Amino acid sequence: xxxxxxxRPQSLPLWLEWTLVSSVGAGLAGLIQxxxxxxxxxxxxxxxxxxxxxPIVGILQGLAIRSRLGRGRDWAIATAIGMVLGIAAGGLLxxxxxxxxxxxxxxxxxxxxxxxxxxxxxxxxxxxRVLRSRLSRPNWWIGVCALAWLINLVPLLLxxxxxxxxAQQSLPGFWALNxxxxxxxxxxxxxxxxxxxxxxxxxxxxxx
Length: 208
Fold this sequence. Notes:
disordered N terminus
C-alpha cells in the first residue's frame, strides 16, 4: 500500500502538469516576496518570501505527482522541507563566496551562479527519498533538479532585465511574472526528467 493521498486519474502529461504547477507555485512565491518588499521597514522579511511559499509549492507538486506515485503528501512535505534547506544551503554558499570574492580569479561570478543549482540539488535530495519506492536510482533526480536550475539561469536573467520597467509600476507584479517564467522553465526541464525516470527507472519490484 502506498503512503499519502490516493491515486487520482491522470488528465495531463506529467511534463505539462509539472510545468504548470511549478510555474504557478513560483509565481505565488514571487507575489509574496514582492509584497513583502513593498514595506521597507520589513527588514529581512522580504528574503523569507520563498520560505513562506514553500508549503504552497510542495502541495501543488504533491497534487501533480500523486496520480503517478501515490505519495503526494510525502512529496509535499519533502518539497517544503527541501526548499527551506536548499535556500539555507544556497544562502550559506553565497555568503562564503562573498567572503572569498577577492581571492577568486573569476571575481566570484561562477560560484555565485552555482548557488541556485546547489540549492535545487539539496531540495532534490529530500525529494529523492520519496522516489526510492519507485526508482532503482532515485539519486538521479538530484542531478535533474540541479540541471533544471542551471538551464534556467539564462532565461531568469533575460526575463528579469526585460521586465525591469514593471518593477517601477508594481513590485509584486514584477516578482510574480519572473516567478511564473522561472517556474515554467524549471518545471519543464524537471518534469521531463521526472517522467523519464518514472517510466524507465522503476524498481524491479514495481515492474509488471
